[in-house]
Design a protein that fits this description.
The structure holds two protein chains of two kinds. Chain A is mostly beta strands. Chain A is built from no helices and eleven strands. The relative contact order of chain B is 0.34. The chains are: A mainly beta, B mainly beta.
């Protein structure tokens, strides 16, 4: 069964304290892995798509990487406005378009 | 330049009533997906539609739930005879009509409360 597990469930950082979020996945043929950010009371906001192992993508303080079993979202020198829940999702080959989401990591950055 | 639009943003229904949730995809997008986020749970896929076609409804509960995406107008997720367990946030996402990998862009959601 296709599955996505994110860790930790919650992460509290001080402003400027870099860290990484983990997304482990089991899927029968990975078409793509997606990272989203979700603020309370809002819909998920698209961040990155990763297609194959070894690929990396960056956006401001965020950098996403992908291996054959997991993805990392690295946050460098975070700011309070980076506080949100970060969601990881996979799309499998031959499964149409549906995304399989992890439970998310709730990130809190204190000034 | 509008994103995915959903309405209403908040919906309150009593047990046994019907709930209708609407989703207008981004301009140029012809694929619509519905997801449900129960309290303290992750997003779960419900249904994938293209214009006038249901492509994948493997995540839809077998009873009381239906979805459509007509040739004209928004996509509708309909829940008949709602129960308290239907209380959740319902999100719609859309993607463009390209082959292969498609990023999905989400709307703000409809928060359904069943009294």
């Amino acid at each position: 069964e296709d599955q996505v597990t994110q860790s930790p469930e919650a992460l509290r950082l001080q402003e400027g304290e870099s860290s990484s979020l983990n997304c482990s996945y089991t899927v029968s043929g990975l078409r793509g892995l997606f990272w989203y950010r979700q603020d309370p009371g809002k819909g998920p906001e698209f961040l990155f798509t990763l297609y194959s192992a070894g690929e990396e993508k960056e956006k401001e303080r965020l950098k996403a990487t992908l291996t054959k079993k997991e993805s990392f979202l690295h946050i460098t020198a975070p700011k309070p406005e980076d506080s949100a829940t970060y969601l990881c999702a996979v799309q499998a080959n031959n499964q149409g378009g549906k995304l399989i989401f992890g439970q998310g990591t709730e990130l809190s950055v204190k000034p | 330049n509008a994103g995915v639009m959903q309405n209403p943003r908040h919906l309150v229904r009593r047990r046994g009533q019907e709930a209708r949730l609407r989703c207008s995809p981004m301009k140029g997008h012809s694929h619509v997906y519905w997801y449900r986020q129960l309290p303290e749970e992750g997003l779960k896929f419900m249904v994938y539609l293209q214009k006038e076609n249901i492509i994948d409804e493997s995540g839809m509960p077998k009873e009381r739930f239906s979805a459509e995406f007509p040739k004209e107008g928004p996509s509708i997720l309909r829940i008949q005879q709602v129960v308290r367990g239907d209380s959740a946030a319902y999100f719609c996402a859309s993607s463009p009509p390209s082959s292969g990998l498609r990023e999905q862009f989400f709307g703000p959601g409809t928060r359904l409360t069943v009294l």
